[in-house]
Amino acid sequence: MNRVVITGLGVVSSVGQSTLDYWDSLIAGRSGFAKPTLGTAAQATSKLVGEVKGFDPAAHFEPSQILLIDRVSQFAIVAARQAVAQSGLTLQDELAERTAAIIGTGSGGHTTVDENFHRLYAQGAARLHPLTIPKAMISAAASQVSLYCGIKGPAFAISSACASATHAIGVAFHMVRSGSVTCAVTGGTEASITFGAMKGWEAMRIMSPDTCRPFSKDRKGMVIGEGAAVVVLEALEHARARGADILAEIVGFGMSADAKDLTAPDPNGMARAITGTLADAALAPEQIDYINAHGTGTVANDTAETAALHRSFGANARHLAVSSTKSVVGHALGAAGALEFVATVMAIRDGVVPPTMNYLGPDPDCNLDYVPNEARRMPVRAALSNSFAFGGLNAVLGARQFGA
User: What total number of domains does the chain contain?
Assistant: First the structure.
């Protein structure tokens, strides 16, 4: 069994289109929330969203390429290129065949679907672009990352709603740890701020009318976001042999299913994924310093997650620093787990825990330390990143300081 380390990070987000810009914004608590501007999405809702503003495809792709790549895949490619560049890997020859590309997404090419349905139903179009289906398919981002990064090993998508990216990174971790691949370029991407999607989310009545304030009293719901994050995982022996800069070590992955309700979260299912991660990582509860929470800002999710942390950590739950970076970037759905895992890795590397912004005070059912409104400098020896999706699909990643 290989030890698995993280050697590269890449981010496209509503608060920065690089890992450092993203991380600086999280630490400063600079919100990415604004009214939507994308296509017909602006007509669909008056709610705030975490839109990736100022993203220019022409800065990253040739004009002929842009026509063939949905926004969701563009985000993934840009984040993957950043991560591979930071890692210093040269994905050629045998290493290209020993590297996996595993990308999670909840909706795939939602922009392509929405735009083409509008052409068909509203404008009466007789035909669509011949590559509409390849642009829109759930696996498009994984295929495009493989293509643009020269990855010739296993390449596939994982779709499990808001746990997609965490499942993708976890599966990649297990593949590198088992030795079936040497490296993996993995993470998640989402770009579903569209007319149809926003109408769907509004119908659920869980979107906040103002902002996202996870775990806080008077919280009113979630803010939809978009973006991508990608990490490079590598077998420790391979990373050491080439003198790579190791950012952190990924040590555990836990999964569970609630088997209870399509939308209502279950603390028992969440707790099984958390304790499964601790067992996989061979970490005791008292060794965890920080939790990057799922923390959507809805009443039900935040209450259930708090209960799950109490069940998993017992008396040690009171000593955890817990924060939700969705309070800054919103809920990026299939990309959320990857964006949050990058924040977790950076917290370990820099010894800074990002804050839960917009916090107004304690809720009786949310009684942990949520690092309210200001980042906290503290040693982070080991941390967990939680993702709990609709359908009761739970996934948790564990990471620690390399050498700790």
Answer: 2
Asked, for residue 153, whether it belongs to a domain, the answer is yes
Whether 136 and 31 share a structural domain: yes
Rounded CA separation 178/180 (Å): 6
Taking the C-alpha atoms of residue 181 and residue 359, their distance in angstroms, rounded to an integer, is 43
List the catalytic residues.
162, 294, 331
Which of 209, 241, 273 is the C-terminal boundary of a domain?
Answer: 241
Is 246 within a domain? no
- Given 241, 259, 274, the domain boundary residue is 241
Whole-number Å distance between alpha carbons of 187 and 93? 23
Which residues make beta-bridge pairs with 155?
101
Give the pLDDT confidence of 62-72 residue by residue, as tens digits: 999 999 999 99
CA 252/CA 261 separation, integer angstroms:
26
**Each residue of 222-247: pLDDT tens digit?**
999 999 999 999 999 999 999 999 99
- Written as six digits, the tokens of 197 are 């999607």
Which domain does 118 fall in, by range? 4-241
Q: Would you tell me how many other CB atoms lie within 10 Å of the CB of residue 307?
A: 19
How many Å is the maximal CA-CA distance in the chain? 64
Whether the Cβ atoms of residue 393 and residue 254 lie closer than 8 Å to each other: no
Are the C-beta atoms of 388 and 394 separated by less than 8 Å?
Answer: yes
CA dist 284 and 303 (Å) reads: 24
Q: Is residue 91 part of a domain?
A: yes
Structure tokens at 361: 């005070």
Does this model's pTM top 0.85? Answer: yes
| Token couple for 39 | 């296509």
Do 272 and 225 have their domain in common? no
Whether residue 126 is contained in a domain is answered as: yes
Give which of 214, 198, 230 is closest to 75, Cα–Cα.
230
